[in-house]
Amino acid sequence: MAGRRARTGRGWDASPPRTGDASTPRPRRGGRGRATEPDAEATPAPPRDEAEVAREICLRQLAVRPRTRAELAGALAKRGISEEVAAAVLDRYDEVGIIDDAAFARAWVSSRHAGRGLARRALANELRQRGVDGEVAGEALEELDEETEAETARALVERKLRTARGEPDAVFRRLVGMLARKGYPPGVAIRAVKEALAAKSAEAAEFAEHIDADALADAENDLDSRRLD
Prior knowledge:
The protein has helices at 50-64, 69-78, 83-96, 101-116, 120-129, 134-141, 146-161, 168-181, 186-198, 202-209, 213-228; strands at residues 7-8, 11-12, 28-29, 35-36.
């Protein structure tokens, strides 16, 4: 009957009449029946500016600890930053004081001498490994004078002597070797150990009396010269 709803086996069918062509595609439904739009073609992100990437790399490096210009240049090269862009970014950081090799060298000498007891020779080697210019490193090392270096050597020896075991000659060799590894010249190392042994015990003092510090230092210097040749 026109205008009346058709009755079904389950009651009145109140569904609205279907409209449109049956061939018209319907929106796809998600996992819970939600309609989803057809996938749009993904738009690739624009390439990032190389200088911006270089700045981010530098700032991440500097957030860990201060860096020299050479260290930052090496980090940029490993990430594929061109030499031209790296130089421009590092030049700008030099201008504004974000990187300062002279300040880095001074701080490095102060902290490594106070914390590890390193002497000038060892410190010069560490600065060279980090790309600090020799003249810049030399100026920083001038702040560590010979008197301070000798006092530090003696303090290191006295600390080690508190737990040292063995015959005086064996202890003597171990302590001189320890100072040598920290960069102390033979003369400074031998005199520091001799003085500390003389104050430790009667046996050690007797052994120390027979140590010719100057002769041993000359012998060690000659040995070092032959190794370099």
